[in-house]
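comment on this one:
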Amino acid sequence: MNYPSGIKKDKTTITRRKIDYKNRGMNLENDINETNNYYIEKNIAFIYKKPTPIKLVKVDYKKGRIDEAYFEMPSTTDYNGIYNGKYIDFEAKETTNQKGFPITNIHKHQIQHIRNIYNSKGICFLIVRFTKYNETYLLLAKDFLEYIDNVGKSIIPREYFINKGFRIKDKYIKKVDYLEILNKMEDEK
């Protein structure tokens, strides 16, 4: 566009937005961590984020810096702990996919871990947040395994979470109050 005073507008460049995957799922994890801290402070449950096992190779102690490290072994699920005398283990994931939850977001060794916990009678589940809809669901290991064993599609549709899962309503203090759902399930027995 030419302006009347003869000033030419600089050509603008179109920049592509770089997608940053490194902190994907951190909002959900932060909400769960806050909820777990509440549970611990109130002596309700003791559920913790599992650290990823790493092997330190080079450490600069003077600068307080890790220069080289690698993953020692594959991690299992994100959280585990104890509630009412029962072992709890779960994986937390966020997805921007509008159609459903891609199963590839959970590694094969994690699926095997979920299967092992379920078969050992532990309480095991997924917490999945659909960010486009601002919806968070708890899906029991039983229903997750049933889907991947019998349906075999690469995406678990959002509708499956709506029909088989349990919606976790957003709250102020206990942002992801998954124990409320577990309590309701226990009351129904």
